[in-house]
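SEVERITY: medium
COMPONENT: batch folding queue
REPORTER: lab tech (J.R.)

DESCRIPTION
The queue accepted two submissions in a row. Attaching both inputs and their returned structure tokens so the on-call engineer can compare them side by side.

ATTACHMENT 1
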Amino acid sequence: NRKHIPIKIGVGLNTGDCCVGNMGADQRFNYSVLGDDVNLASRLEGQSKPYGVGVVIGPRTKEQATGYAVLELDLIKVKGKTRPVNIYALLGRKAVLDSPEFKSQEEKHNRMLSAYRGQNWNEAAGLLAECRGMAFDLKTLYDIYEERIKTFQAAPPPRDWDGTFTATSK
């Protein structure tokens, strides 16, 4: 008869090589996992809250998740990395992927990202407004892009900007 209190957590998934096992010296060791792809997975988990999604996946995981509904979140340079990576939100299984609602939002969302990266701020803002009223509630994500667009309209990035956002938190 206890009140149900939901727990919301973020998950970061990445695919790649790693080293798993007991690490350390004879006197002090710990079962752990090490590797560049593990570090990226940890950074992806840390982005779930700022982007307002439950599961953030890396590019290699996205390549292998062909039967899942996935939307690109951003091109981001995570803490500890020098090269940006595309990150994605995992939104559902095949039934979601095949739904007309997802297909419609995916198309509009991708057009918005393209306009944003092409520095077509008015077009990006218009598409963003349309995305907000669609089936998948990505309010936090779209709030981020709305703020960025307003900032860039006032002070545009350099012409050669590739759309990369640099994350300042893990």
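ATTACHMENT 2
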Amino acid sequence: PWIDTAGEKIEKSQRPWVQSVRHGKVQKDSIIRLQLPGGGFRTFKTNCSPVLGDRGNYAGVLVSFDDITELEEKEVELLNSKLEAEKANKAKSSFLANMSHEIRTPMTAILGYAELLLSSRLTQLERRNHLQTIRRNGQHLLEIINNVLDLSKIEAGKLAIEPTRCSLWQIID
């Protein structure tokens, strides 16, 4: 049976070629599907032109069928690819927003404590505490950058796995 794009059966009287003869008008770019015995279908774009016979009556119809099944499948693939790309772009934007925050936090601490070291008279203990804070935040920032670089290596398929002894209980703790 012929079906429409919604999967509903097209009655004989509603088929484009019958409509073309009945109304004496060209039916252009009608999209219809032919239901196949195995459960699939083929999609066609049809063009129908009525043909005049003797005495000016419509004696028939000239019908062209363009099989657009593969084109339709490619459109679905393209749409799926577009959706995947949009999803990946959202994930990238979210990642960059999180990374910006993660980098900004220790960088702000480093710059703030460096400013304190430069602008005020501090005791040796205060100076040491400020320098430790700068060092700790610098190490944290370096870990973040290394993690980002590791993610880039994973994405490029170039991350080398390095076995290291560790305590499972310490990791869990």
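NOTES FROM REPORTER
The longest strand covers residues 41-52.
No errors were logged for either attachment.
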